[in-house]
Design goal:
Distance between the termini: 41 Å
Number of helices: 7
Number of strands: 8
CATH architecture: 3-Layer(aba) Sandwich
Radius of gyration: 16 Å
CATH topology: Rossmann fold
CATH class: Alpha Beta
Length: about 210
């Protein structure tokens, strides 16, 4: 289990911020890589990891996050969870940014845009079928992660899309190391908010065929 993921740990600064861990863990053959979105998901995926035969990396953050799931929600390694249905664009997120994706979907809905939201709690093995279906049915994707975009979830989603159902994709994530600051201040500065997902959704819709 790896803690201190992303930049939301705040004042500890960049030396303590794990923003390349997904890429490193996914590069290891045979590894399962998990990234829960809330407390409920963390408990469930810890149990799934314990039951799994083989190496597992479970990514956790430090700050409190919104509770997304109710008690009893089932989680299966390798199977994404669709939280909101939508027909115009799909917001694919993991970890802390799942809650932001839900908020972004609500904002888009108020503007007449139907945005699907998918929680990718298992980054490896990736639920390629859920991604293929989203690409086919909505024709535009936004991938959001509190991680370097050059080696994280977005890269894996793009590979799956290229091999199954090509469509335009926008990426919300980090392109640099951050700095010391409050968690909220850092998330605002580096574009990890619902408003950034909304902007990315509007950009990808402009590119949609």
């Amino acid at each position: 289990m790896g803690t201190h993921s992303g930049i939301s740990i705040g004042e500890d600064g960049p030396s303590q911020m794990s923003i390349e861990d997904i890429g490193l863990a996914c590069s290891l053959p045979g590894f399962v890589v998990l990234s829960p979105a809330d407390e409920v998901a963390t408990h469930a995926l810890m149990r799934a990891a314990a039951a799994h035969v083989g190496p597992v990396f479970l990514r956790t953050g430090r700050p409190k996050v919104p509770i997304i799931y109710g008690p009893g929600q089932e989680f299966e390694i390798g199977r994404a969870i669709q939280l909101i249905d939508g027909r115009d664009v799909t917001l694919i997120a993991t970890g802390l940014l799942v809650a932001e994706a839900i908020r972004a979907s609500e904002t888009l809905a108020a503007a007449g845009v139907s945005a699907r939201v998918i929680d990718i709690h298992t980054i490896k093995p990736l639920d390629r079928e859920a991604i293929r279906r989203a690409a086919l049915e909505t024709g535009a994707l936004v991938v959001a992660e509190e991680h370097l975009v050059d080696c994280g979830l977005g890269v894996r989603v793009a590979q799956a899309v290229a091999e199954t159902c090509p469509c335009p994709i926008e990426f919300v994530g980090l392109t640099t190391y951050a700095e010391s600051g409050t968690p909220d201040g850092l998330l605002d500065k580096y574009g990890m908010r619902a408003a950034n997902l909304v902007a990315a959704a509007r950009r990808v819709l402009e590119r949609k065929a």
